């Protein structure tokens, strides 16, 4: 049995509860950035996220803007390093192409040469260091250069480059050729 007016009273209570929650949700923020939040250190300047400068592609570092990864390591260079024929890279030619990948034909053998230019190459090196991989300094390849199994990293004029060889053979077999290619590519940078 239903009592008259109970449904209306519950709807009214529900409406009051919803309005109270909405009102309370707006009480925890202050839209005035000049007033520091409770617990904030005085004298520390903050910038609203919408006011942060955003770099546009036209504002890239001039040194990296004109570097084509496939020009640093040609297909002929990559084939010499890998010791096998490789396919042309899938990437379209561009003056600011920051990656280039030469892959072995589907008929084999398994081979791939990857070239990274710019911040991606530096990040790759940083990750290798964080993982504790053994890096060996190499000379004659730019301002700073390192090698590990299957990969070399070098910097010249503030531009980082990495060249990685993927083969199923022992990486030591390719160490000399990889170091020589790093020196050649650094000379082109």
Write the layout of secondary structure elements.
Blueprint: H1 6-25, H2 62-65, H3 69-72, H4 75-82, E1 99-103, E2 111-117, H5 119-130, E3 136-137, E4 144-148, E5 151-156, E6 159-167, H6 175-188
Antiparallel strand pairs: 1-2, 2-6, 3-4, 4-5, 5-6
* Backbone structural class: alpha+beta
Largest sheet: 6 strands, antiparallel
What is the global morphology? Answer: globular
| Number of helices, where a helix is a run of at least 4 consecutive DSSP H or I residues | 6
What is the terminal separation in angstroms?
88 Å
Protein name: DUF3558 domain-containing protein
Organism: Micromonospora coriariae
Please give a structural write-up.
The chain has 189 residues and is α+β, with helices and mostly antiparallel strands. It has a domain at 64-188. The protein is built from 6 helices and 6 strands; from the N terminus they run ααααββαββββα. The chain has helices at residues 6-25, 62-65, 69-72, 75-82, 119-130, 175-188, and strands spanning 99-103, 111-117, 136-137, 144-148, 151-156, 159-167. Strands 1-2-6-5-4-3 form a 6-stranded antiparallel beta sheet, sandwiched between helices. A hairpin with a 2-residue loop joins strand 4 and strand 5 (151-156). The relative contact order is 0.12.
Concise account of the structure shown:
The chain is an alpha+beta fold and 189 residues long. It contains six helices and six strands; from the N terminus they run H-H-H-H-E-E-H-E-E-E-E-H.
């Amino acid at each position: 049995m239903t009592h008259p007016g109970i449904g209306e009273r519950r709807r009214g209570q529900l409406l009051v509860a919803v309005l109270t929650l909405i009102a309370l949700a707006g009480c925890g923020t202050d839209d005035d950035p000049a007033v520091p939040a409770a617990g904030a250190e005085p004298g520390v300047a903050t910038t609203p996220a919408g006011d942060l400068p955003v770099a546009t592609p036209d504002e890239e570092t001039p040194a990296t803007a004109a570097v084509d990864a496939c020009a640093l390591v040609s297909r002929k260079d990559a084939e010499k390093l890998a010791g096998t024929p490789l396919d042309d890279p899938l990437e379209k030619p561009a003056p600011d192409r920051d990656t280039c990948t030469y892959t072995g034909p589907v008929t084999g053998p398994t081979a791939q040469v990857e070239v990274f230019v710019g911040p991606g190459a530096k990040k790759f090196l940083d990750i290798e260091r964080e993982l504790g991989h053994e890096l060996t300094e190499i000379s004659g390849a730019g301002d700073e250069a390192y090698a590990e199994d299957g990969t070399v990293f070098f910097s010249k004029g503030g531009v980082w480059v990495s060249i990685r060889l993927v083969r199923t053979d022992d990486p030591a077999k390719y160490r000399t050729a990889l170091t020589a290619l790093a020196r050649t590519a650094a000379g082109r940078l």
